[in-house]
Amino acid sequence: MDSWNPPESGPFVGREGAVRELGALVSGRSLVTLVGMGGIGKSRLAARVAGECGPEAFAAVHWVPLWSLSGPSLVTSLVADACGLSDHSAGDPVDGLAEWIGGRRVLLVLDSCEHVLAACAALVRVLLARCPGLVVLATSREPLGLPGETRFRVGPLDPDTEAMELFAARAEAVGVRWTRPEEYVAAADVCRWLEGVPLALELAAGHLRKRPVREMARLLRGRLALAEAPDSRVQPARHRALRTTIGWSHELCEPQERLLWARLSVFRSGATIEDVTRVCRGGPLTEDVLAGALDGLVRKSVVTLSGGRVHLYDTVREYGALWLAELGETRATTTRHARRFHELARTAEDSWWGPGQAEAATRLSACYGDLCAALEHLLATDPRGAAELAGAVGFFWACSGHLHEASHYLEECLQLVSGPPAVMARVCWALGVVRCLRGEYDTAARLAGRADEEAVRAGDATLLADAAYLRGLVMLLRGEPLNALAVADRALTGPVAGAAAAARCRLVRVFALTASGALRRARAAAEALRDDSVAAGEHWTRSYTEYQLAVIALFEERASDAAAHSRAMLRDKRLIGDAFGLGLGLDLLAVALAALERGEEAAVAYGAGQVFWEMVGHPQRGTPELKPLRQDAERAARLQIGDGAYEEAYELARLADPFTTLETMLAG
């Protein structure tokens, strides 16, 4: 079963009957939606149900945190990412996702659909029609409204049993234990006053360190009585209970904690402590005061701190956003947020040629939702800033498979921004790389031409070199190695470019020399570039030099060396999370294994590689010179072990987790 990451927020309490009923529903229905108010426990219940589905029920379980999106435009991309699809094709992303799921038995958990309901419904309608083994388990404050949808209403916990169990567990977590009968009576009163709403109980428990449970019960009784209004029949009591508890929790916070709560509402992916400090500091929130306020919010259960990242419940975030608007700070805080993630993207770009490359790629992947939110804000308020950010993050997203997202934002920037030349050159270059990786070579060539024109206007040698890299890449993939070699040579003998751009041009030169048959020169150039990459602590360029050294070794009939180079490539690609490169490397390793007469292992490598190629949906598996090597190796492997054994090993690898198979191949 594929790995997935449901929310972690303490032990699961109660709802055993609901878990059993939902388990039966997801085994027999195609669309089940957990419907209920915010804070009622839909996500936790969905996580419990999905977590109990074993591999005999589903081949894969995928968790999609839709709450991280600020709008509907990237719903399909987020679902694809959660499913492990890094679609490099030029087609409709919905088609690519449907083909990737295919007929497999898959459970797709769409968490928090309400703010992107129409986009979710449209996507689910298509996927269910085309993927017969797909089951969708959604959580939302309102149903998706699709034919055949089974709606499961999630209500509060039983106030006398389940709610009391949850409240006592959360109290113990903050160091409070009740020993006297009157305390248990008061705790039971709190559970009844709060109508068994889990989030309300969590927030109330967060105040027990400073407010004894008997005092809490008295205060809640008074506040909830005041909350009763002439129109209270319109709104269920549990809605008033949660609203009152959040408001009460807000009032019990110190002023600095309330201000931090409001400012934290701008984050989408969870935030590191450094992110929180950079975005939320200011005014009364000095760095020391902010640290204390954050500690207070964690103690009061307003925010959770896990793995060094700060998270807010959706309902708590919404309340904070309302207060941020009330304070008149929404624009200023979202601008600081966008500035922070723009800075992170620039730092990652500057770290590309160096030991921070893999860490930067991981960091940008972890804050994906916040990068999207920053881009949305800048597109509305500062299009040039959006173009600078999109240009900085575009190549990272292309390398890690976020091609549709990169294309979406880069195209928006091209439509909205007309200068300056340096910014436009970077946007055109990044979009050209995306188009090239999607197989749209004519469009990529046009974008390379425009990037070159803008770079000339800017007088920037690095931008000129990157435009040359893009032109050379297109030529290589079209099967024009001599033209690519000429472009790379001109760039490398021209004005001195930055190290990363120069390395990319050197890489084009290596590929072109290999493809044109100049193997000795290609090997020398590849080894020199690899040594420079190793010295710099860089992985992306190094991985492709290992790829080329493997290809050269195969042409020179040095199969053992080719296998070693292929494994070195795969180790680097694994660090960066490049599915395209992993498919390429496994194909190359299979060729080497077949040359070593290890036909069964070659079949396994091909099968695992096929999974990665299906992930990216790319029509061309590498540069043209690899195709005949791959075909000859497959024929050789079949002859070595027989067609039946080959097909069996290949299919078993295709059905297995590709990353597990990858680890086995690397150890081999």
Automatic annotation (TrEMBL):
It comes from Streptomyces showdoensis. GO terms for molecular function: ADP binding. It comes from the Bacteria. Coiled coil: none annotated. This is Uncharacterized protein.
